[in-house]
TrEMBL record:
Organism of derivation: Bimuria novae-zelandiae CBS 107.79
Domain FAD-binding PCMH-type intervals: 286-465
SUPFAM superfamilies listed in its UniProt record: FAD-binding/transporter-associated domain-like, PRTase-like
Cellular component aspect of the GO annotation: cytoplasm
Annotated Gene3D superfamilies: 3.30.465.10, 3.40.462.20, 3.40.50.2020, P-loop containing nucleotide triphosphate hydrolases, Vaccinia Virus protein VP39
Superkingdom per UniProt: Eukaryota
Signal sequence, renumbered to the chain: none
Single GO biological process annotation from the record: isopentenyl diphosphate biosynthetic process, mevalonate pathway
Name of the featured protein: Phosphoribosyl transferase domain protein
Pfam families associated with the record: FAD_binding_4, P-mevalo_kinase, Pribosyltran
PROSITE patterns (alphabetical): FAD_PCMH (PS51387)
């Protein structure tokens, strides 16, 4: 599969070699036809999967900072790209201008705005008609449009180059002109969407993203091939077209530039430049062209780089050993840390400080009789150690990051020099300071350090230096059965090895046959000539081998791929691309089958799987002890795609990369996580990155937000965005005196105690909002109003009147206060809100925060207890806080009810542990990852959540059934039957009914059950109405007498969205003489944006308890 750039070069070369006549430019019709092929069909996926999501994410800060947006699109084609953004972004665009030189496109673009129905879908809040110029965007400006670069010319918040800057040369000049047209505000930007790679000399990129899997397919007919060839070449091709169907690789790149794009000279005037190209070994990184590579020689140079990046709001990359695929990025400044290469051995303390490649460190430490457990390659740098560092000493001494005891680094938040942990005083820079968050930073460095600062030096704990006996064996495998049996035996043998032994395995194809290579390593502090104890298990099973004794430096040269595979990969004639996952049992039938299938599907003969032995010292460290949270594994499976260098930039190279990702995707469900050292901003890495740090991801996200708030290190292993707002919101309701605030404080402590620093919980009172307003208006003492119960009780009647008066003046007051509390609770995962005065608050507010789970815990206590707790009785329990609500009594069903009669915290603590903590359990997060997002289905602009995809994942249905079972807040022993409606509900209800041993009552469409039946009408689901031309309603029915009055029922369904289907089911049960008080509902996924709970309450079903496992924003 060729690239569009390669195809264009080939077509132009063919034409130049065969014709001397002047080239004829494309007509508007020819351009339109070719562009239609490029953007239609498979090319349209690029917009759904990349352009619209990435552009939405990129523009969010700009749009959030402005009340209105002025936008210019250059070459949008027949429709505005901005018109496909989410509604809340589109509504911010108030002025729209476009340059579209193709007259056909310009006409259609204008028509899309002139039609009232279409205009509403595009940019519904335009204050003036769209200004569409049917001409090219030029460097000189257009005097007729009034758009130029002068002080009085129109300025824009956003300028979008929509489709590869077609016909604009030199591209750098066009972007510079666009930069001059930006508004003066800091966040204004010019965004370039371009197919294939692009390098813009002298311009520093604010942010970049890529979609490397874009593909364009052209139908195998003369007309399509001719149109496409003409379009790609850029001029008319007479009697010339492509001679066969085309499938081209079409990676998409998005680059954003701000007013700071031209600031490179400020940095290069202060920091030395790299002489020549930096030594970069990674093939992936070599594809990128950094805007500049600086080579600091002093710590202050690194500080200047960081401060420059902070001022100009750009990212940086760091070159250490040059093995990282993201150490260089196009149009981004790279810092080569090669000058910081000293090694110091402190004999008394046995610590080494360093920032140079592994082989040099080990050589130096060996001379002192010690070693450091580094990786498996001699030339890697700090990036590997900071992300983990897996080597042949891992079973004996642990990971490289486990040996780190201190570090010096430059903060990417402030540019300060920091030291953490043990750093000998003589190796601390004079201006280095120890930060207040030293423990957090030290924790993060050990496993995810490339995200949190630019490391100057690392202090390692040195260990005794052993000698190694290395043995190599290669076994030809005749068929899959023998291969699977051999892997099973290998797995059992490896588990018997002692801690000082490790074994690597290689699965590869050679000489027309599947091969298994095994290398064992035995470490000893004594001579190894006769040492055979540890490897006797392998000798007894497999016999002879090649054997040698090496020191710690020679250990780096013992990998089988260097000499024993395919004639040796170390001769520099190949390129490789790798990703790594962690496996527990390679002999397991499911795992072994996937490994063998991977090797058999290799796209080039040189691809292989490398299985590095782990366990022992690696798993001795608790997952929460360092940022490296993936500890429960026996093998690190390195999936290695290899091709010869003369195949670079060919289909073979692309196929090898696709194979690596395909194998990783296949292994991920049976893995214990992914290795973060290889991962970067490539969107194909996203799924692996989500599994890279185990339970430590939430804590890492918060630290990233705190320690790198400007995202200077944006191209390191991706971490999740910090939860700027809580994901679990628990509304604590109840009458005055029930102890709501006290309970909330106890429950907060439970979350903070049990979460091992991975979660943060906080309690706030929503009533404080009205108290602040009351104090300001009535000159009351706010401090006493918030803290002095007796003072508050004296003001309660007046406070109530003030609240009701404000409600009359501001009908949306409750929603305002709720959102204020949520939005102000940053860096909190679990938020408890007390002081709620609203009926059915979850139904009332959940749609306001549709991507967060809202729970209500209703606290109750006897009247006597409440009077005693209020200390300053006011005589009437219904006066005050409770009277701010209009409900006479609880007329709906909260999620949970807590009886707070007991003295002390024990009862409240048990309640939280049993009912609240499960909502943050990893199993729920794991279930959520099984729900696949499908952009653009069932219509453009919709992101569909495929809940039924859970059952397609290994163990998905069992996990979901288990969670439905354990999360049910009532007693399954009292349930008479589970009720479910086809088809999604059947999938989850059936295994649950089997698990809890109760009957399953089926509700089906009319005509599918034998009589007698009970039936009702129900609207079709909102998805069905969008997808099919079906009638708006259908009949559903169940068999008569399968349920009876007084029977306790649980309705199980896959989704709660609009609530219309659930209303029909409850109406059907009521028609069968079942009281709704005897019905509970459990759904797998809820979509609060559709306000289903509100509809249920309006229809008289507010008393039904509804529980959902997952909550999603959107559809």
């Amino acid at each position: 599969m060729t690239t569009l750039d390669s195809l264009e070069r080939t077509l132009r070369q063919q034409v130049e070699a065969t014709t001397s006549s002047a080239k004829q430019p494309l007509s508007d019709a020819q351009y339109s036809a070719g562009f239609g092929i490029l953007g239609g069909g498979s090319g349209g996926r690029t917009y759904q999967d990349f352009i619209i999501p990435q552009l939405s994410q990129l523009l969010a800060p700009l749009f959030d900072s402005c009340g209105s947006i002025s936008a210019l699109e250059i070459g949008p084609g027949a429709t505005s790209i901005l018109g496909h953004l989410p509604n809340h972004l589109r509504r911010k665009v108030r002025r729209y201008t476009a340059f579209e030189p193709n007259s056909l496109f310009a006409t259609r673009l204008g028509e899309s705005f002139s039609s009232p129905s279409k205009a509403e879908l595009l940019l519904p809040c335009l204050e003036t008609p769209p200004n569409i110029h049917p001409i090219s965007f030029t460097l000189q400006g257009d005097t007729t449009s009034g758009i130029g670069t002068g002080d009085n010319d129109e300025k824009f918040d956003l300028i979008l180059f929509c489709h590869s800057m077609y016909g604009m040369k030199p591209k750098t000049k066009f972007i510079e002109r666009a930069l001059a047209m930006l508004d003066e505000q800091n966040l204004a930007m010019a965004v370039v969407i371009h197919r294939d790679s692009i390098y813009l000399d002298g311009l520093v990129c604010h942010q970049t993203a890529s979609f490397p899997t874009g593909v364009v397919r052209v139908a195998d007919d003369d007309e399509s091939l001719g149109c496409f060839a003409t379009f790609i070449a850029g001029f008319t091709l007479e009697d010339r077209s492509l001679d066969k169907a085309v499938q081209t690789n079409s990676p998409e790149v998005m680059m954003a530039f701000t007013k700071h794009a031209t600031a490179l000279s400020e940095l290069t005037a202060k920091v030395p430049l790299e002489k020549g190209n930096p030594t970069v070994k990674n093939w992936e990184a070599r594809l990128h062209r950094p805007i500049s590579v600086v080579r600091p020689t002093e710590v202050r140079h690194v500080q200047q780089c960081v401060r420059w990046a902070l001022v100009h709001k750009v990212g940086l990359t760091v070159v250490g050993g040059g093995h990282s695929g993201h150490c260089l990025m196009s149009n981004v400044v790279a810092i080569n840390m090669g000058a910081f290469d000293q090694v110091h051995i402190l004999a008394v303390e046995q610590e080494g400080t360093d920032s140079r490649p592994d082989g040099d460190i080990v050589s130096k430490t060996m001379a002192a009789g010690v070693t450091v457990p580094l990786g498996a390659r001699p030339s890697v740098g700090a990036g590997l150690w900071l992300q983990g560092g897996i080597g042949h000493q891992a079973r004996l001494h642990g990971l490289a990051c486990d040996a780190i005891v201190g570090a010096v680094l430059v903060s990417v938040k402030s540019g300060e020099v920091l030291y953490v942990g043990i750093v000998p005083s003589q190796h601390r820079p004079t201006d280095a300071v120890c930060p207040e968050n030293e423990d957090d930073l030290m924790w993060a460095i050990k496993g995810a350090g490339s995200n949190f600062g630019i490391v100057i030096s690392v202090t390692f704990k040195a260990l005794p230096d052993p000698t190694y006996l290395v043995e190599e064996r290669v076994f030809p495998l005749s068929d899959s059965l023998e291969a699977q049996l051999t892997l099973s035996n290998l797995d059992s043998v490896f588990t018997k090895l002692s801690r000082n032994c490790s074994a690597d395995a290689y699965l590869y194809w050679d000489a027309g046959q599947l091969q298994l290579g095994v290398t064992t390593f035995e470490a000893s502090m004594t001579p190894l000539a006769s040492a055979r104890s540890a490897t006797k298990y392998i000798d007894g099973f497999w016999g002879d081998c090649r054997r040698k004794v090496v020191n710690s430096v020679g250990l780096f040269e013992t990998d089988l791929y260097l000499s024993g595979m395919h004639g040796g990969h170390a001769r520099g004639k190949t390129f490789a691309f790798k990703r790594c996952l962690f496996l527990k049992h390679i002999g397991d039938e499911n795992v072994a089958g996937r490994l063998l299938a991977a090797v058999q599907s290799r796209p080039t003969p040189l691809c292989y799987l490398h299985l590095l032995h782990g366990g022992e010292a690696v798993s001795d460290v608790a997952r929460e002890e360092t940022a490296f949270g993936c500890r429960d594994w026996e093998f690190a499976c390195v999936i290695t795609g290899v091709w010869s260098r003369d195949q670079d930039d060919t289909e073979a190279a692309q196929a090898a990369m696709r194979w690596v990702y395909h194998v990783a995707e296949d292994l991920l469900p049976v893995s214990s996580g992914a290795y973060g050292a290889d991962l970067g901003p490539d969107p194909r890495d996203a799924a692996l990155a989500r599994n890279a740090f185990g339970p430590n991801r939430p804590r890492l996200a918060r630290l990233k937000h705190s320690l790198d708030p400007r995202n200077v290190l944006a191209y390191a292993c991706p971490l999740p965005k910090a939860p700027t707002e809580p994901k679990l919101i628990i509304l604590v309701t109840g009458k005055s005196g029930t102890g709501k605030d006290y309970c909330a404080s106890v429950w907060v402590s439970i979350f903070n105690e049990h979460a091992h620093k991975s979660l943060t919980a906080r309690a706030v009172s929503i009533s404080d909002k009205i108290k602040r307003e009351y104090a300001a208006a009535k000159d009351a003492d706010l401090k006493r109003l918030l803290e002095d119960r007796c003072y508050k009780e004296k003001h309660r009647p007046a406070l109530t009147r003030f609240y009701l008066d404000q409600m009359h003046q501001r009908p949306q007051l409750r929603e305002e206060h709720f959102l204020d509390v949520v939005h102000s609770s940053v860096n909190v995962d679990v938020l408890f809100i007390t002081g709620m005065r609203d009926e059915a608050p979850v139904a009332a507010f959940s749609h306001l925060v549709p991507d967060r789970r809202l729970l209500e815990v209703h606290v109750q206590a006897s009247k006597t207890t409440r009077r005693a707790r209020r200390e300053c009785p006011s005589g009437d329990d219904d006066v005050g806080e409770d009277s701010m609500s209009t409900r006479p009594a609880l007329d709906y069903c909260p999620h949970l009810i807590f009886d707070n009669e007991a003295i002390g915290t024990e009862t409240a603590r048990r309640f939280a542990e049993q009912y609240l903590l499960p909502f943050v359990h990893m199993d729920l997060q794991r279930l959520a990852t099984m729900v696949r997002s499908v952009p653009g289905f069932p219509r453009p602009g919709i992101e569909f959540r495929h809940v039924l995809a859970i059952v397609q994942q290994p163990g998905g249905l069992a996990l979901c059934s288990s969670l439905l079972h354990t999360h049910f807040s009532s007693d399954w022993a009292k349930v008479g039957a589970i009720v479910s409606c086809e088809a999604g509900g059947f999938v989850f209800a059936s295994p649950l009914a089997l698990r809890v041993s109760v009957p399953l009552v089926l509700i089906r469409e009319a005509g599918k059950l034998p009589p007698p039946t009970v039936s009702v009408s129900t609207p079709r689901s909102h998805i069905s109405t969008w997808t099919f031309n079906n009638p708006k309603e259908k009949q559903i029915e169940m068999e008569h007498c399968v349920v009876r009055e007084g029977m306790s029922l649980v309705v199980v369904d896959d989704v709660l969205a609009t609530g219309r289907t659930l209303c029909a089911i409850l109406h059907l049960l009521r028609k069968a003489e079942v009281s709704v008080d005897d019905v509970s509902v459990m759904v797998v996924a809820e979509f609060p944006v559709h306000r289903g709970r509100e509809l249920l309450r309006e229809r008289g079903f507010g008393g039904v308890r509804i529980q959902s496992l997952l909550v999603f924003g959107g559809t």
